[in-house]
Amino acid sequence: LFPASFPPLSRPFSAPFPASSCSVFASGICLFKHPKPSLPKPPGRLLAADSSKLGSVMLKTLLSSGAALSLAVGGYAYAAMWPASQMFGRTIIAGADPNEFALTYDDGPNDPHTYRLLDLLARHQVRATFFVIGRFVRQRPEIARAIAAGGHLIGNHTMTHPLLVLRSPAEARRELAGCNAAIEDALGQPVRFFRPPHGGRRPDVLRAARELGLSPVMWNAMGYDWRPVAAQQIVAHVEEGIATNRRRGAGSNILLHDGGQAGIGQDRAATVEATALLLEKYAGRARFVTPDVWAFRAPGKA
Known about the structure:
The protein is α/β, with parallel strands linked by helices. It contains nine helices and eight strands.
């Protein structure tokens, strides 16, 4: 149904789709231009019966064209944006053990809340994953080094946090390569994993990631903590995802945020408190892992 790669997205589209991590579908998007439907050309003179028949044919043609377009647009949107989709290429989501959880944090490093999370995780002796924005690493490389010193996994979250399906293949590659360089300059070690902002990816994005040595990591539970919500609400959202994953016999890859794309200094106190509640509740009841554990298991188990 889909070619190997697509041009950047373009026109407004109003059909509803499930929202991803930052409500990309709030306003809707149209994913490609399409030709006008081909309609039968009427003869010079028509009888009333012929005219009625032609109108019926034209209506059916329009309806079938619209249905096909809606299906194609919906399929592309699912493949490009839905966290669980594997249509454009394999991504790491979670393992097959419902008692394995991964705490993952996007959009840092962010002072002071990344430091507060590091202190909390150290007290509970839990490793987490931080998908960092390259421009913030350039501004605060000491926070990135503190994450690494705490034994946590650091991943690429692009240089400036764009929606990659709206960028050209060259721009998407520059975003990934720039963030890799920022992290590697700060840590002196290579980056192996990345999470696309908002979950947006195309075949060319995943191909560029592979060429840069990056494995894509998505999620299957989230706290919606980019919104101004209380810690208890964040936990309730996460636990809803955990319950769904357990019914499906899967582990939980939990998406939270230690920062925000607007800049360093975003208030993530509620996320720190929610993390404390999750760690206290699931201590001894779940194993906290990082996505690299799932990545290197045999296919079919991750």
